[in-house]
Design goal:
Blueprint (H helix, E strand, L loop, with lengths): L18 E7 L5 H15 L6 H19 L8 E7 L4 E7 L19 H8 L2 E6 L6 E7 L2
Antiparallel strand pairs: 1-2, 2-3, 3-5, 4-5
Helix pairs in contact: 1-2, 2-3
This protein binds adenosine-5'-diphosphate and magnesium ion (MG).
The site of magnesium ion has 4 residues, from helix 2.
Length: 146
């Protein structure tokens, strides 16, 4: 499981999550529904269905972005998803191989894209991202609590 570098504002999110799930996906159009459905099942297994809708939405947004940027790379790097819980909150971590950071952008009122991270900010209690020195790329993470 990737952890934020020491001193990073997200470093406190790397505590010892007792329950963990991992899924690796190809950067393909089916990755987003797969990840979403998988997250729903895991929330059920963890008896956290009350957080399920929010977790699903965040997984969908973060994996969509990770797949989109991975498809611009000249190698079909996978996208990796971790779901972690202490049964109070759920930390979603999504890795992609691109160095380019996520950026909240100003969106025009009639724009049809550019609202994903706005939604992530609204739904999560916290979100952040960090670079991974090895194997490279970066992780975008979002915390869901009640
Ligand atoms: N995982 C990511 N890797 C690189 N860039 C990203 C990533 N996630 C988001 N971004 C950048 O941040 C921008 C805003 O993301 P988002 O709010 O989800 O809007 P949209 O995906 O509709 O463009 C994206 O257009 C992209 O440039
Ligand atoms: Mg997006």
């Amino acid at each position: 499981m990737p952890v934020p570098p020491p001193g990073h504002p997200a470093a406190d999110l790397a505590h010892d999550w007792p329950l963990r799930d991992f899924l690796e996906l190809g950067p393909l159009p089916g990755a987003v529904p797969c990840a979403r459905y998988h997250a729903r099942q895991i929330m059920w297994e963890w008896q956290l269905t009350r957080l399920g809708d929010n977790v699903e939405l965040l997984v969908a947004e973060l994996v969509t972005n990770a797949v989109a940027v991975s498809r611009t790379l000249d190698w079909p790097f996978p996208v990796r998803l971790w779901l972690l819980t202490d049964l109070a909150g759920v930390l979603i971590q999504v890795w992609d191989a691109a160095a380019q950071p996520p950026a909240r952008i100003q969106v025009a009122e009639d724009a049809e894209t550019g609202r994903g991270l706005l939604l992530v900010e609204a739904i999560s209690s916290r979100w952040d991202w960090y670079e991974l020195p090895a194997p490279g790329g970066k992780v975008v993470c979002a915390l869901v609590t009640e």
